[in-house]
Amino acid sequence: MQPALLVVSVLPSIILLLYIYKKDRVEKEPASLLAVIFAIGALSVIPSLIIETVGVYIASHLFDVGSIGMVAFIAFIVVALSEEGFKYLGMKLVTWKNNNFDCTFDAVVYGVFASLGFATIENIAYVAEEGIWVGLGRAVLSVPIHMMCGVFMGASYGRAKVYQHKRKKGASKINRINAVLEAAIIHGVYDFCLMLNTDTSTKIFFLYMIFMYFITFIKIKSMSVKDSFIDETKIEN
Fold it and tell me: What does the alpha-carbon distance between residue 109 and residue 115 come to, in Å, rounded to a whole number?
């Protein structure tokens, strides 16, 4: 792979990783832990690809090819739910009982590192095959949407940890489920608009991305400012 293509592939993730790391203001996470989360996010590409291959095959037998039903099934269930689900499982495996998970914003950092691990591998594959212009487009669209999914996943995951600490296991479980579902919905809308590929869906897609940029960075700023140790956190409904 040419150096220029490699830079275009990985630079967007590096910029977003440094940004979210900087926003972790109370207590920085160890680099070794973040490296493992990133690597597990990257490895989650493998089971996701397997599930997506099987899922597309199933969809082709359940729906008329090219129908809205088929597009929605592939976008939300086959792609979004599988990718976000595997990112979440890897992240939880490494972090849920880790002693470093002691602040609310930590969960956002974990979610973003897992998501961008996935996005980096995916981006390298796309750019290697389709070239630098695809890489530039993905730098402002595909990579950021993975990060956005990670932010919302992390927000719910952090609430789940707080509820667990306060021995509210039911609420903790609900928020762990929400962590996957919220990320999958955000991801699914993105894919659905692109896959539908109509004039209307394209317009909705760009409006959606503007909206997601806006609310995601507001959420990051708010959660960073309110970050606190989990054993001191008041749960906000």
Answer: 10
Neighbour count for residue 237 (Cβ, 10 Å): 4
- C-alpha to C-alpha distance for 12 and 142, rounded to whole angstroms: 10
Query: What does the DSSP assignment read for 42-94?
Result: HHTHHHHHHHHHHHHHHHHHHS-TT-HHHHHIIIIIIIIIHHHHHHHHHHHHH
CA pair distance 141, 102, nearest whole angstrom: 32
Cβ count near 65 (within 10 Å): 8
* Residue-wise pLDDT tens digits, 193-225: 999 999 999 999 999 999 999 999 999 999 999
DSSP-assigned beta bridge partners for residue 149: none
pLDDT attached to residue 66: 87
Reported pTM:
0.94
Amino acid, res. 60: S
